[in-house]
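Morning. Coffee machine broken again, so started the prediction first thing and wrote up yesterday's gels while waiting. Chain of 563 residues, entered below exactly as on the submission form.
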Amino acid sequence: MDDPMQPVILVAEKDALSAGQDVAEVVRRRFGADYAVVRADADPLASLARLASEGRPVALVLADDDRASAAGETLFAQARRLFPDARRGLMLTWGSWADPATAQQVLALMSQLQIDYYVVRPHGPADEDFHRTITELLREWHVAAGGRVGYTVVGEDHAPRTHVLQQLLSRAGVSVAQVDPHSDAGVQVLTEAGISYAGAPVVRTADGRVLVDPDDAEIAASRGYGTALPDRPVDVAIVGAGPGGLAAAVYAASEGLSTLVLERESLGGQAGGSSLIRNYLGFPRGVSGAELADRPYQQAWVFGARFCLARAVTGLEVDDGFLLHLGEERVAAGAVVLATGVSYRKLRVPGLGRFVGASVFYGASSVEAKAQRGRVVFVIGGGNSAGQAALHLARYAASVALLVRGPSLAASMSSYLIEQLTALGVQIVTDSRVVDAHADAAGERLAQIEIEHVPTGDRRRVACEAVFITIGARPHTEWLPPEVMRDRWGFVFTGASEADEDAPEPWAGRVVPGPLETSVPGLYAVGDSRRSSVKRVASAVGEGSVVVSSVHRHLSRRGARRP
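Came back before lunch.
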């Protein structure tokens, strides 16, 4: 008899025999030891509903029929509603995508977020291409369902530091459970550790260690990330471990440069918090920001790059080389690559600030999205980050609305995201802004926001239990010395920065530097903090890889390359 807590793979085939291989049997032979492979009844929707009523966890739904039931719901739509973390695949026979009707069926289901991808039927029990697809879908479910190495955060839900710790751990690639210190689970953790709750969060690591009110560096160290600076100069220091910085680290280290990466927060930068990036080259089902950060981190580390996380660069001295300040500590480098990225602009709204970190968040991490089950949520912003956040939140929240100041999303968001938002029923509130916020009766959590219709000035209060803000961009360049040219917003000028009405002649009277070089020789800027950069992950990766050739030339000119 199946273990009731064993995750389920549901296979729904109209006619398994006429289709060739019995997919359910092929899957059972390979995955049956760890998953309960269930063949759907004649009514697949009833089979799925029964699994939900029994409390069974469903990891994967494979079906070859997307027709809606009499109630108007397809099996895939029902699976998304009942099991938001489950992966869903439409089974096709080899080559059938050449049929225009089949191709349109796949594209429609994907744009409506009913399926994650299509799955080609196996040609035999040992079809490794088929099994690879199933393994990848199960791995994605495993990550989404929180099946990775687990941490526990004991802290109050309304305390901002509790949420910061959850986000740090989630972006480090671990599952994290948050428990109230006064709950049975929280009391048990504290009792086993022999400590009392004193108002600050407590973290139990995957190996059972207990950290009391840990800072970011302690969290990074608990995951095996380095935080100590090297005791000798390096060829190149890369400030920022977002996509651009990670790309620079891979290419610099692989070409023999002693490479140091300094990151004040988590791997991946702003992109690292994205739940799913669908349009990054080479990932047809999309890729999470966390995975997109972890893969190049591992790659750079294997090439010998050194990482120091939770370490903020606070100053830079320019002489014969560079001296970076990290508080009271210093590290010397022959060249520096700025890949500091940007953060979301703070929203100045009366009453909203008190909820930041508890009910109001900048960006939308996976762990915070799951915490919104059954809640009314607003996302503020009109770019791709806002769209991705709204889509992910819609898996869990009772309702999601996207609030934008402009008249539409067409000019700021990719069309595929707009289509998916529409398909999921996310409300788009245009020409509007938030002007105030109000607490619940206890005064601890957000309960309402006040929205102003910009063209008319009319205001209304609406229920709102959480706000996710993804607007604007503020570069992290305030620590740079004055000789580094920046515009009035702080974006760094490089040789490739375009002139405009704001800066008609940025290099007047100066020698124009290389495309990614700043006004200081040997100091380069890539990614979002560079003026005139294209705000795309792929663009930042391209700049990070290309800049290394300029670093080589600079080090060669000054004879500073380390042996």
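The chain has 14 helices and 26 strands. Going to sketch it on the whiteboard this afternoon.
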